[in-house]
Amino acid sequence: MHIEPRRPTVKNPPEQFAGDVWLDLIVVPSSESQRTVVAKVRFAPGARTAWHSHARGQHLHVTEGVAYFGDRDGNLIEVRPGQTLYTPPGEDHFHAASPDSFMEHIAIVENADDPATTTVWKEHVEDDRLPGAR
Q1: What are residue 70's DSSP bridge partners?
Q2: How far is Cα 39 from Cα 19, in angstroms, rounded to an integer?
Q3: What does the pLDDT look like over 43-90, one tens digit per residue?
Q4: Contact 80, 98 (CB under 8 A)
Q5: What is the biggest distance separating any 2 CA atoms in the chain, rounded to whole angstroms?
Q6: Statement: the pTM of the whole predicted model exceeds 0.85
Q7: Phi (first) and psi of residue 57, to 5 degrees
Q8: How far apart are CA 94 and CA 123, in angstroms?
Q9: What is the reported pLDDT for 66?
Q10: CA distance 35 to 113
Q11: Domains assigned to the chain
Q12: What is the CA radius of gyration of the chain?
């Protein structure tokens, strides 16, 4: 056994995120037989992901603030600290922080057979899909 090296915090790219979002990788596969990736993701107030889906689904455990998760059917789910949301494989969705506070969640995904296809990024989310939109 060993302690994993610390990875630097990275700011997520504007092509995939609106607003400021930072990522800390906690777990990455250390052999070809492993698939699990775990990350701590911190959103500034009002920040959000673009639409995306995951080949094997995703678990999101909110640790701070109020999170909103939306799907293409217009559903918007509010998730609070201590709650975990699951999105099934292939479901388009987005994650967003409430407009007035930071939000942090732990994201857990399993890589696809080709890790480059684990997450499929799409267009940005329209402002009117978000809480507090005018």
Answers
A1: 76, 94
A2: 18
A3: 999 999 999 999 999 999 999 999 999 999 999 999 999 999 999 999
A4: no
A5: 53
A6: yes
A7: 85, 180
A8: 10
A9: 96
A10: 9
A11: 10-128 (2.60.120.10)
A12: 15
What tokens appear for 60 in the block?
């999101």
Q: 27 is written with which tokens?
A: 């777990």
What confidence score (pLDDT) does residue 133 get? 53
Give the count of beta carbons closer than 10 Å to the beta carbon of residue 75. 9
With b for 16 or more beta-carbon neighbours within 10 A and e for fewer, the 45-62 pattern comes to ebbbbbbbbbbeebbbbb
Integer Cα distance of 70 and 79 in angstroms: 11
- Reading the block at residue 59, the tokens are 């678990």
Q: In sequence order, what DSSP letters do the residues of 38-66 get, joined into one string?
A: EEEEEE-TT-EEPSEEETT-EEEEEEES-
* Cβ atoms of residues 19 and 48 within 8 Å: yes
- Round to whole Å and give the CA distance between 109 and 98: 23
CA 131 to CA 46: how far, in whole Å?
9
Q: Give CA–CA dist 65/47, Å, rounded.
A: 12
Neighbour count for residue 18 (Cβ, 10 Å): 17
Residue found by looking up tokens 């504007």 in the block: 14
Structure-block tokens of residue 119: 């997450």
